């Protein structure tokens, strides 16, 4: 009797274990089907064709980032037009708002200053610049007294003109010409890895003379006629509200931008310029296309709306990377320029100079 009962218990236990195993198998299959059809965010997936793991984008987070850019853009436009309606406070505050926009997108190696003048080693001085984006790590101020600042052209990556309305084309041309006339100097001496860098060019260089990008920021007015003067035109439109960004159409590709920003010295022979070796126009067997247009950096959200601030962030920083580091600072050239002030026949003496 006891033996029969013992056998019965074992049979029941085997049946229970078998049922549990079947339930676990069914549960595992269900979990697999769910995972296969609804992959977890950020989990690496296996491509059935290539048998390689591929990342799964977290689209919800990406949408949140895009939404934040749109909200920030709308907030900036609202602030700019609020200041514009209360005319007694628009001047410096408008520039401050535009400055905050650039501070959100440019790397920390750059400094943004208001109301500066730019000089070169020839003693030329630009018109007043509303905002200057420049590298202060390697290049010192030439002169600073409170808010009055003179910055060498070698350090400047971009200049920004901020106005409530687009200025007349003649005024803007004069302003742009006062920037364009400035020339960087290569009369620098610096220790580099394995050699001493000087002004003596012995092989093609990727940077022979830089120029700052020119940016116009305004609220109202026609921007069609000023596109050719500036690299970027940012217009804050109240009715959208949106920042409409126009890019100078002269430069079609990154290679065009690279040459325009890094080879702005008219006295350098072509044989000493690396005019874009390394840029690839098409995909090859071992290389990929990299000579993009700035249009390739534009970002669009729902219903084809451009996320202008995000587009400009990617476009502007790509161009900053094409410049990368500023020109080596030509200390000797500036010393010679300052010495010419009192030692040149072309320099008029002022009453009281020797007192």
From TrEMBL:
Keywords: Membrane, Transmembrane, Transmembrane helix. Residues 82-182 form the DUF6602 domain. This is DUF6602 domain-containing protein. InterPro entries: DUF6602. The chain crosses the membrane at residues 6-35. It comes from the Bacteria. It comes from Syntrophobotulus glycolicus (strain DSM 8271 / FlGlyR).
């Amino acid at each position: 009797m006891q033996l029969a009962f013992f056998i019965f218990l074992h049979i029941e236990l085997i049946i229970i274990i078998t049922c549990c195993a079947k339930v676990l198998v069914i549960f595992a299959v269900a979990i697999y089907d769910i995972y296969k059809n609804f992959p977890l965010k950020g989990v690496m997936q296996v491509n059935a064709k290539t048998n390689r793991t591929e990342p799964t984008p977290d689209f919800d987070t990406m949408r949140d980032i895009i939404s934040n850019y749109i909200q920030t853009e709308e907030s900036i436009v609202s602030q700019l037009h609020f200041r514009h309606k209360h005319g007694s406070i628009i001047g410096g505050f408008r520039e401050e708002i535009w400055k905050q926009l650039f501070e959100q997108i440019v790397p920390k190696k750059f400094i943004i200053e208001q109301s500066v003048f730019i000089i070169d080693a020839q003693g030329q001085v630009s018109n007043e610049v509303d905002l200057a984006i420049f590298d202060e790590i390697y290049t010192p101020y030439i002169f600073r007294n409170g808010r009055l600042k003179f910055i060498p052209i070698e350090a400047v990556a971009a200049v920004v003109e901020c106005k409530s309305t687009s200025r007349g084309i003649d005024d803007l041309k004069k302003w742009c010409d006062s920037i364009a006339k400035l020339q960087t100097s290569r009369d620098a001496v610096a220790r580099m890895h394995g050699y001493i860098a000087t002004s003596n060019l012995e092989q093609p260089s990727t940077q022979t003379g830089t120029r700052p990008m020119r940016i116009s920021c305004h609220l109202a007015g026609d921007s069609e006629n000023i596109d050719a003067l500036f690299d970027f035109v940012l217009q804050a439109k109240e009715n959208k509200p949106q920042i409409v960004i126009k890019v100078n159409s002269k430069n079609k590709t990154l290679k065009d931008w690279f040459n325009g920003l890094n080879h702005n010295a008219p006295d350098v022979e072509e044989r000493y310029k690396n005019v874009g070796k390394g840029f690839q126009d098409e995909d090859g067997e071992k290389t990929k296309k990299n000579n993009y247009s700035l249009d390739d950096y534009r970002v669009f959200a729902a219903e084809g709306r451009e996320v202008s601030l995000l587009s400009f962030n990617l476009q502007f920083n790509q161009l900053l990377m094409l410049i990368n580091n500023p020109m080596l600072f030509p200390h000797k050239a500036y010393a010679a320029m300052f010495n010419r002030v009192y030692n040149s026949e072309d320099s008029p003496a002022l009453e009281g100079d020797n007192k």
